[in-house]
Write a structure and sequence with these properties.
The protein has no helices and 15 strands. By secondary structure, it is mainly β. It has one domain. The N terminus is likely disordered. Keywords: Signal.
Length: 210
């Protein structure tokens, strides 16, 4: 178990660089879950989502379903005027949660996955966007290297080495217009687990301000 891991990314606005997809607006959420086990589907809708277009803040209580528990948390998406003379603004979209637990793999011989805390943040100005994420108190998953490569995969195994799921860290979307989309962690179940679907923890995005 590692105490805290922090990873950051930066995107600069390039006027001559065309966007390859729609801009990623300022949003943040704690996460969600959708998976099927033994014929039963478990759904945890997106928890604690905020947006710079509203709601500007959100809170989530503990959400517990068979095999997964989100410990609740908060999010905040704000726009601040940085220069009243030019109406320049800056945005910040952040979500924080605690006490996450995935127990769905235990019956397949896998580990109990826990995160004591995690936070994702995305900030945008006229000239750049930046995003970062951090977590603390993780168990059941082998810690990624620091810094964490984009899309780093840490297999989740049972005692005999069979891979039951993949923990995919630092998933990024960079459309090319200076905006950023970031998912801290996605837990993807594999056939050997007898489960299909995924669980997502910590999502945020932001775009350069006008």
């Amino acid at each position: 178990m590692r105490g805290t891991v922090v990873t950051a990314l930066l995107a600069l606005v390039a006027a001559a660089s065309p966007a390859s997809a729609d801009p990623l607006r300022g949003v943040a959420d704690i996460g969600s879950a959708s998976f099927t086990k033994a014929g039963s589907t478990v759904e945890v809708p997106t928890q604690g989502q905020c947006s710079i277009t509203g709601p500007a803040s959100a809170s989530a209580q503990v959400a517990s379903k068979p095999g997964v528990t989100f410990g609740g948390g908060t999010s905040s998406c704000t726009t601040t005027v940085t220069d009243p003379n030019t109406n320049a603004t800056a945005t910040k979209s952040t979500a924080t949660s605690k006490n996450f637990e995935l127990s769905a793999l235990v019956s397949a011989g896998g580990p109990r996955v826990k995160l004591a805390s995690y936070t994702v943040t995305c900030e945008g100005t006229q000239t750049q966007t930046s995003a970062n994420w951090s977590y603390g108190g993780m168990s059941g998953i082998t810690n990624p290297p620091n810094p964490v490569p984009v899309g780093y995969v840490s297999p989740i195994r049972k005692a005999d080495g069979t891979v039951l799921a993949n923990a995919v860290f630092n998933i990024q979307s960079l459309p090319g217009d200076g905006s950023i989309g970031l998912t801290m962690l996605r837990l993807e179940f594999l056939p050997a687990s007898g489960i299909s679907g995924a669980v997502t923890l910590g999502r945020t995005s932001c775009t350069p301000t006008p």
